[in-house]
Design goal:
membrane, transmembrane, transmembrane helix, transport, 588 residues, RCK_C, nine-stranded antiparallel β-sheet, alpha+beta
Length: 588
């Protein structure tokens, strides 16, 4: 191999390591890989920028806008109200999957899970069921639905775009539907009959009565009239008396050593942990003040809402401190407490770096809640009131989405143009606000697509794809195209679990086409295998964003996804090896 090929290998390995570590944002990893390719003169500047003008990148951006309009217009509210009537956990799981899978074919998966996640948590709390029994099947169903159409997930669009660059005809909007629907039915049957038995049964992650998802950490100021003045924390026995546990004692800017031995003085700040109801009871009886609430300003007698907000995957709030979020001036909200799964926070709330899955207990002016619900940085888990969208806008949004699907499916308009027209129509008809389209856009994915596509060019230009295929075909030997198809599927599935679905598609499409030519077969079934293997990532909580969302909310362990997901991947792989050649023959 040439030195450019070896350099490309090094860039790919480095990118995979960074993707898997999750220590660097995925879009930044893609930009680093792109910069390395340009600096080493493996791709030209024009080729480096070609990914940002690629049809897949433009279409994904437009589909994000369409999905945003469906979500924020309230088009899904009638369905959520219907699901709220369900009382039996197994029926809720089945109903969630049956509702989400068809919607996932047209609506952004993350938006779907974010919409149905609070509903699932409330029903689980009402029925005394662990959310772990419901949330993982819900996330999997979103993926099963997404692969059923060309526009259902970004990796399908990316696969189609890359396949066209290799001279293949474009896939139709519903060309994946037959295979996707059969796999979805089989997958849901597996989850109901076998997968539910593998799910954890006793995870305490449901919302307790009163709304909290766990033990919050908050700051309480000792007042001059508090009965705790002059008392040592150890002697106060806060855990026994109130069910509240002191973590730290802050005096001014100092963190006191051995806080349990300190005598409390006026103005001291106690960092405590406990269920919110118990914290409030302790605050009343000990005559303490909530430190964050002191800074909360109210306009007259406007009502307030106590809301629980979970930091969403890919949220701009990740890694930032509370003061940097601007919740006070954007939504007139003050964070009273924070809950982090599996970890006890010991810093002041203002000094805490937020992480995905953190749950914030926030006091919000009622007028600020509608805008807060549309912020993709957070998922509203619970609140005092519920807002209803305009049914007129809901019907308009649904009609526009149907028009886009029909126009692209009937080949009246190219998919990117139809999607852009639909996004423009939703903006003009007020399905989302003028700024919502930019705030709700998943820019990380768009930047990732634009920056990672040139890596596929580098693989082809350096001859790396040919070297990989020669080695792979040596393993397959003379076992025919079906063995080669199985190799492509399994390799794509493995890369997806390590680095995500879009980067794995970029790496695998050119390899799949070359493998097909080496096996003297039509490349289309091999490209389809890449699309399906990449879009159905079940084995880890990091392979797909919806898995990450339910991982935090459901209280799962990493191994829970492996126990349920690996057999499901094996089922999908087995069925795909049988069905793909039926729908896309090796020798048409």
């Amino acid at each position: 191999m040439s030195w450019q090929a070896w350099a490309t290998v090094a860039i790919i390995v480095g990118a995979m390591a960074l993707f898997a570590s999750e220590k660097v944002r995925i879009d930044l990893v893609a930009l680093l890989a792109l910069a390395a390719l340009v600096v080493l003169h493996i791709v030209t500047p024009e080729e480096a920028l070609s990914g940002f003008s690629n049809e897949a990148t433009v279409t994904v951006a437009a589909m994000f806008a369409l999905s945003l309009g469906i979500e924020r217009s309230g088009a899904l509210e009638p369905l959520t109200r219907l699901l709220m009537r369900i009382r039996k956990p197994w029926l809720l799981t089945l109903a969630m999957m049956l509702a989400i899978a068809p919607l996932g074919a047209f609506v952004k998966n993350i938006a779907l899970v974010a919409t149905f996640l609070p509903l699932a948590l409330r029903v689980c709390q009402r029925t005394g069921t662990s959310p772990a029994r419901v949330l993982m099947p819900m996330a999997y169903a979103a993926q099963m639905g997404g692969v059923c159409t060309l526009i259902g997930t970004s990796s399908n669009l990316l696969t189609d775009s890359l396949a066209q660059k290799h001279g293949l005809p474009p896939f139709g909007v519903f060309e994946f539907t037959k295979l996707g629907a059969l796999l979805a039915v089989a997958g849901m049957a597996y989850l109901m009959l076998i997968g539910r038995k593998l799910l954890p049964k006793h995870i305490d992650a449901a919302l307790p009565e009163g709304g909290e998802v766990g033990k919050y950490v908050t700051e309480l100021i000792v007042g001059e009239d508090s009965p705790l003045l002059g008392t040592r924390i150890a002697d106060a026995q806060l855990g026994d008396k109130y069910g509240v546990y002191p973590l730290e004692l802050l005096r001014g800017e100092r963190r006191m050593w051995s806080p349990r031995e300190q005598q409390l003085a006026a103005g001291d700040v106690l960092l405590v942990r406990g269920d919110w109801e118990k914290i409030e009871e302790f605050q009343r009886r000990a005559r303490l003040r909530n430190a964050p609430e002191q800074h909360y300003e109210r306009d007259g007698d406007r009502p307030r809402v106590l809301a629980e907000l979970m930091v969403a995957p890919g949220s701009p709030a990740e890694g930032r401190r509370m003061a940097e979020l601007g919740l006070d001036w954007r939504y007139r909200a003050t964070v009273l407490a924070v809950h982090r799964r599996g970890q006890v926070l010991r810093d002041k709330l203002s000094n805490t770096d937020l992480a995905v899955g953190d749950v914030l207990l926030a006091l919000v002016d009622e007028g600020g809640m509608p805008k807060l619900r549309t912020d993709d940085a957070f998922i509203v888990l619970s609140e005092r009131d519920d807002a209803r969208g305009s049914m007129r806008k809901a019907w308009i949004a649904a009609a526009i989405m149907v028009s886009v699907v029909v126009a692209s499916g009937m080949h009246w308009l190219p998919i990117p143009i139809a999607a852009l027209c639909g996004a423009t129509a939703m903006a003009l008809t007020g399905c989302f606000g003028r700024k919502d389209i930019y705030e709700g856009m998943d820019w990380k994915i768009i930047i990732l697509l634009g920056a990672i596509l040139p890596l596929g060019l580098a693989i082809e230009k350096t001859g790396l794809s040919t070297v990989v295929v020669q080695g792979a075909m040596g393993l397959v030997g003379s076992h025919g195209p079906l063995a080669a198809l199985l190799m492509v599927y399994l390799l794509t599935a493995l890369l997806t679990e390590l680095m995500g679905h879009n980067p794995s598609v970029v790496l695998m499409v050119s390899i799949a086409v070359t493998v097909a030519h080496a096996a003297h077969a039509d490349p289309r079934p091999f490209v389809v295998a890449v699309a399906f293997a990449a879009a159905t990532s079940f084995a880890t909580p990091v392979g797909y964003p919806t898995n990450t969302m339910v991982y935090y909310a459901g209280g799962y362990r990493f191994t829970d996804f492996m126990k349920v997901g690996i057999p499901l991947i094996a089922l999908f792989c087995t069925l795909s090896m049988w069905l793909i050649p039926q729908f896309w023959p090796f020798h048409p």
